[in-house]
Amino acid sequence: MIDRVPPRTSSLPIKRPLPPYKKTKRHPSHKPTDLDKMNSSLLVLLCALIQFLGLDAVYVNIQRYRGYIQRTHNNLRALEGAADMKYMTTDYGLENLSQRWADRCVFEHQMRGYGENLAFISSTGPTPDPGYVIRESIRQWYNERPLYRFGTGSCGAACHYTQMIWARTSRVGCAMSYCAALSDGRGRVYRNAQYFVCFYSPQGNFIGQTPYTPGPACSRCPMGNTCTREGLCFGPDVMGRRRRRSVAATYKSTMTKSEAW
Questions:
Q1: Torsion angle, alpha carbons of 150, 120, 24, 70, to 10
Q2: Which of 67, 207, 228, 260 is buried most, with the most CB atoms less than 10 Å from its CB?
Q3: What would the DSSP string read from start to end of 195-260?
Q4: Can you name the CATH fold of 57-260?
Q5: 3-class SS of residue 99
Q6: Residue 156 pLDDT more than 50?
Q7: Exposure of 114 by Cβ count < 10 A (0-12 exposed, 13-18 middle, 19+ buried)?
Q8: Contact 154, 209 (CB under 8 A)
């Protein structure tokens, strides 16, 4: 039986953005548009209404960022020099699970068979655009890269990073909620938090295992897989569930916190 690595990331708030890891410069950016700014203004009004009505959580529609989330994960995975790194796709089933978890407004892990990266931004000032929350969360997860020691058999203080680049993980689904009050499960509450949740499958971060096999790109792909232009393994096992769901659109921004499992 394989033991899972317990969450070991710091619970200290990140007071200012971390410097970007040099290799991320080539990744596509998603600059705010006029529509982003308008949506951000609407979100501010919505947050005020939520507080007035006393609601706990409201759905934040981030479907337009699906491509960015998937593309950024794959670009980062392609940088690792792995022989068996799988291409990652969006899974709507994982999105649904992530949304249900974010809707609870509790900053803790479910630990039920999926990889999990969690983050939130809380503020008494203007509510950040959801795109900013997504970009900052992913960037800070990946910025744990220098903390990882390959071959130790543990993700240590870099569990967000290792889950993102775990070779056998091939599907991701993310969601966001606006939480008027986000609990950390240990008695602390963060006000006006935008809670970002990503679930991964198959899960990673197993004790005694390394995230991937070093070597030439695609040289150790599973049988029947092809090699993408990014140098990632692509096969039938990679495709996630793509069934769409309908959700009432509406959700919760600068203290940042993250957890990985």
A1: 90
A2: 260
A3: EEEEEEES---BTT--SS-BSSTTTTPPTT-EE-TTS-EE-GGG----------------EEEEEE
A4: Pathogenesis-related Protein p14a (3.40.33)
A5: helix
A6: yes
A7: buried
A8: no
Which residue is listed with tokens 């630990």?
111
The upper half-sphere exposure of residue 24, i.e. CA atoms within 13 Å in the direction of its Cβ, equals 19
Structure tokens at 196: 């970002």
Q: What is the pTM of this model?
A: 0.74
Residues 161-176 as b/e (b if ≥16 CB within 10 A, e otherwise) read bbbbbbbbbbbbbbbb
Whether pLDDT at 69 is above 60? yes
Candidates 87, 258, 76, 65; CA nearest to 157 is 258
Can you give the pLDDT at residue 188? 92
Instruction: Dihedral sign for Cα 107, 110, 111, 113, please.
Output: negative
The span from the CA of 57 to the CA of 79, in Å, is 37
Q: 151 vs 144, 209, 213, 261, CA distance in Å? A: 16, 8, 10, 19
Q: Compute the Cα dihedral for 112, 214, 10, 1 and give only its sign.
A: positive
With a cut of 90, say whether residue 187 has pLDDT above it.
Answer: no
Taking alpha carbons only, the member of 256, 252, 255 closest to residue 48 is 252
Euclidean distance between CA atoms 213 and 93, whole angstroms: 28
Question: Distance between CA 162 and CA 225 in Å, rounded?
Answer: 23
Name 179's bridge partners. 57, 193
Q: 255: closest CA among 140, 164, 163, 175? A: 140
Reduced to 3 states (helix: H, G, I; strand: E, B; else coil), residue 131 is helix
